[in-house]
Amino acid sequence: MIFKRKIFILLIFVGLILAGMIVGLYYYQHNLSPAVHSVLATSSPSIKYSVTANHQSNPNAYGLLKDAIHTLAKSKQFNDFIKADQLLQQHLKRLTLAQRYEVMESFLQAVNQHISLVDGEKKELSRHNDFFLDVTPEEYQPPLLAKRLLTVLQPEQKKWFSQAINHNFDLLDIGEGFYIIRLNPDYIVKRFAPTLPQADQVFIKAIAQQNQQQFYYDAAIAISWQELGERAIFWENYTKQYPDAYFAKDAQTLAAYYLYFFIHGMDNTRPIEYFNEQENKPVIEGEAKQAFLFIKNKYPNSNVSQKIKQFEDSSLINQTIIEPVKPTQRSTLMGQL
């Protein structure tokens, strides 16, 4: 009986010793594990690659985009635009909303700097403005003009431009035989709008739609008076519907921008035929008069309608109803003309 008890106690003692050894071995291995991984990472290329690959699978999306945009702004190579565009497609949705706004604006600024660098001090792209003065009506469409420009560019600019016109860049007629090369605002609709709130999408799409072509040429309005009034109404309504939107102040400025031209016209397109001194009021040109009536009837409570009434009742031929304004730098960056 005593013998069995001694054996039992001995087994317990051995068990405790083994348990202690196991625990000790665990902590020993645990404490040395960083050193072991460090040695393995140094001595084994395969393990080092594995660690690096895991790190690269979760890159800093914001940092990658900022670096690519910075490179684009200082580059003449169109491949740098393509790289930045590819990174936007891959990583834009992973950014915070504030970062998306920042990346969009810095990217568009970089694109403009990129174009200026390619153009160069000698204005290789823009010096051929006189080249377009003798184009035929059949050649007047931007795609045909682009093909014609390719025939006279220097090799470096030709290579860049042949790539650019296949990636949302186009030629824009700005009047008097002058053309500029720009990133079409449709690009912003495609690449940035889907990642932004609804109010921003409405703003971006409207900018793109209204600025496929310039609405004035050679100090003359090139769209109808009614369309001009509708644009002023659109931006007025936008500010009412989205007062807290990111682009609300830009829209407010655009409402005043279009309203000024709707009321006062331009040097070569005036809404007033003459001033009737007997009746002491302006005689309004036919198309403008119809547009004024249309807006007043359709949008009687709008600010645009109130300004029309002030203009119609003005007793001075040169009375200023609204002061001229320029689009904000941000909306211009996004394609506003």
Topology overview:
Elements lengths: L1 H42 L1 H12 L4 H13 L4 H14 L5 H23 L22 H9 L4 H10 L4 E7 L2 E6 L2 H6 L6 H13 L5 E2 L2 E2 L3 H17 L6 H17 L7 E5 L4 E4 L1 H13 L4 H10 L16 H5 L4
Helix pairs in contact: 1-2, 3-4, 3-5, 10-11, 10-12
Beta-strand content bin: 5-15%
- Based on secondary structure, the structural category is mainly alpha
Question: Total number of β-strand segments?
Answer: 6
- Give the SSE order as H and E letters: HHHHHHHEEHHEEHHEEHHH
Shape: flat
Major beta sheet, specifics? 2 strands, antiparallel
Query: Span between N and C termini?
Result: 106 Å
- pLDDT < 50 stretches: 22-58
Q: Level of helix content?
A: 55-70%
What's the structural domain tally?
3
Number of helices: 14
Query: What is the CA-atom radius of gyration, in angstroms?
Result: 33 Å
* Average of the residue pLDDT scores: 83
What is the spatial order of strands in the main beta sheet?
Answer: 1-2
